[in-house]
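hiii so my PI (J.) wants the whole complex modelled not just the main chain, which honestly fair. so below is everything: two entries, each one labled with what it is. i double checked the lines twice but i was tired so who knows lol
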Amino acid sequence: MTHDMHPQRWGDAAHAEPLPASTRELVELAFGAVDTPAVDSVTMPSSELAAHLLGTLADIVGPEHVHVDDHTRRLRTRGKSTPDLLKARAGDVSDAPDAVVRPASADEVDALLGWAAEHHVAVVPFGGGTSVTGGLVAAREGFAGLVSIDLVRMDQLLEVDPVSMTARLQPGMRGPQAEAALAEHGLRLGHFPQSFEYATIGGFAATRSSGQNSAGFGRFDQMVVGLRLATPAGELVAGSSPANAAGPDLRQLVLGSEGTFGIITEVTVRVRPAANETAYEAWRFESFTAGRDAMRHLAQNQILPTIIRLSDETETALNLASQSDVGGEGVTGCLMIVGHEGASIDGRRELIASTLTDLGGSSLGEDRGQSWLEGRFHAPYLRDSMLDVGVLVETMETATFWSNADRLYTDVKAALEASLGEGSIVLCHVSHVYETGCSLYFTIATSSGDDPLGRWIAAKSAASDAMIDAGATITHHHAVGTDHKPWLAREIGPVGVAMLRGVKDAVDPTGILNPGILIP
Amino acid sequence: MTHDMHPQRWGDAAHAEPLPASTRELVELAFGAVDTPAVDSVTMPSSELAAHLLGTLADIVGPEHVHVDDHTRRLRTRGKSTPDLLKARAGDVSDAPDAVVRPASADEVDALLGWAAEHHVAVVPFGGGTSVTGGLVAAREGFAGLVSIDLVRMDQLLEVDPVSMTARLQPGMRGPQAEAALAEHGLRLGHFPQSFEYATIGGFAATRSSGQNSAGFGRFDQMVVGLRLATPAGELVAGSSPANAAGPDLRQLVLGSEGTFGIITEVTVRVRPAANETAYEAWRFESFTAGRDAMRHLAQNQILPTIIRLSDETETALNLASQSDVGGEGVTGCLMIVGHEGASIDGRRELIASTLTDLGGSSLGEDRGQSWLEGRFHAPYLRDSMLDVGVLVETMETATFWSNADRLYTDVKAALEASLGEGSIVLCHVSHVYETGCSLYFTIATSSGDDPLGRWIAAKSAASDAMIDAGATITHHHAVGTDHKPWLAREIGPVGVAMLRGVKDAVDPTGILNPGILIP
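here's the output for the full assembly
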């Protein structure tokens, strides 16, 4: 796996396989698919950064770490949201940065921010480039230029504290790098979002990421016990203790700030021992409601497994059709995946199994659970393969309290179906549960048509309106970026927005940090 | 129990008993105690609020809820920090508010803040008045007056959601009121700080409170899923979902803001079923280090009881001397209290007991555990009884990561012993544990001498310097108030302070909210 993703697709081009013929036939039947190749050649806008500014940049990081060539700039143009991909496929590279710089240390990041503030150059921090919400599309108007600060060189495990069970990590470490480095100490972080293979520690923190193991390991914001943030006003070092009453928790103000308050230069995380045992099981419930009730029971009785997910009836049926290799009986009703990881999992596994059985669940054994595990990072590749044949696949996610989950599910699904029209599909699963509520993760597939971006905007707006109208959040774990900004404004209201702006103005008075992202 | 505390003492005057003769003898022997009665009569400063302002106040809350009489104002003068008590006992009531107003609703609080901003009147929110860090001593200079906004009338349980297991509470509910109201629904909150009998839901939130059951129930900031905050800029309603990635978590920005960003008018909390079973046990460990290692093992293996506490050798010996009524053998080494509460506690109780035994612990049975439970809210009364006989008793607390706990303990203890000199005692216990670290709670007793406030300032400064120098927090759960401000500035640094000021300026541009509190 290379570090850079393909400029027009998710991940490594070597993994980007066309759809198998049988799937292609199904897709053609369902959506009237037609080959829709991406535009091959693009014309990069020239770098507009003045020569003397490039010189002073080189003074900070060394000339070999300042890149203005077309190839490098193209690889740092936008992220992987659907609008990002549609623009990239159409050959639109208008959001390219003027330069890509690669600092080696927190001090260099600090100096870069001083440089940017002095010369009024906008900066976009770059980790894995996996944003699916437009988090890398900074608004460059009014600035002397736009520079991508690529944290790829800051990729070291700095320190392990085996007594406190914490580790200090640099922000540019990708998920697999972090797990590999910790594994050498017999430890693990246990954070596996779908973007795991490319996304970075700094990005997990900046976006309040939540991984598939959240039932057992918590969200990334629950793993972070300390961090360093470089801002134009100086450095914040937060995390004197696991928890305290020394004013508002500033760690929680940095987590989710998406590069608008500063650049995260170090993250101290809680770690746990590497797992000795793992087991993945599938379960069947009669309905999405019955399955959610079972999840709620586990969460409210503090007997959660490491991973728990539940597909609605439609997603269950589709998973079945696409996983005929798994074997076994066809599944009706709703499929639940239950994963256990730890030093000794038997006791809890048995308790959860008997509880799920009591609540109406039927065990489907381990094959389907294992199959989910093996394909867990694959879905983003499928989105590209579908775009290749003119089918728009998108995911949207939200969260609410348990008593509101049914309304939220019904409303968002109805809004999507109304917007997409006949011949489209809307799937949903619960991927994260809490004592008081859960997330809902929707997947849609529809014909791209003549105006895929227009179709996307209409569906996205309809779903987002439904989420906010239902009193839910605009995003459980995809973050805000540019795509969710209008709905964030509604979710937190004008006082919430004023608070974010207040912090921003205090540490970034000239507004150079990721302008246009997050803050409405 | 009345709602108002005695103006010069903790709690209800009816509970303020003189020391028993035997204890008094011991105290005399140890500290050379002398009777030091409080000044009986005080002269209240007259209310300086102009008549037309009182009139407009009355328009908002009704004339019967605006109080300018000496008695009511005296009861809202300061909190219960040691400097607060020393000043009150000396007859100093110079921090009295000009009026006490009692709003009945979030709308009335909102109108009061509009009124205060318009007339440049400083406001101090008042819940239980239990602050031990000077959180109620607002700086009135430059304002047209100082008004205490007493939330006592906002004391209702507004709604229970038994599906989501949440409850909406008004901020003026005291701990016992909240638990009693929830008990009618078969629920409980499970938050028991030492101030429980008087402190309020709003105060728990505003100070990031942590209760004695934190191992089982979490800190108050982990219980809050939603809140409403009235600010001069309008209302913030936070909490769309249990957790999300919609920017920084604004709940965590309000929690710990100590009335400086706004007044909390509603809190939605996670609740749990009322406990069917409880058991409290005592255990003995050979040393403070061995006991902490056992706590760490339980925390890092996620097998914590509901309550776990550990006294150091000195505190263990003193507890023994003062609890001779408990019976049983004398305890050397270190005393650990382990409490279990829940629907069915046996399984976990046995697992923890066998683990503690494996780690070198010896069970001391249930009597001592039960005795701790019965006296859990009594210590603040003892502080007053000791002041009556010229002995200064104070508590100071901090938290750090496990690998730093020994250094922190040694350094703070040494700093206190050096400052207090011969004939003083310094005790410590661990009251809160996390996977990555723990709190340390110090209790000191020393002769008040001629200048008790001077002795207090010297000891407090020495301990606080030692905490910050050791990289720990200035407060694990007592909050910042005025007493901890200089050390908060060191803990979070200038960028952290700038962030807090940025938020403050955004929502309270004229600075009327609790001026002088929290923000350095």
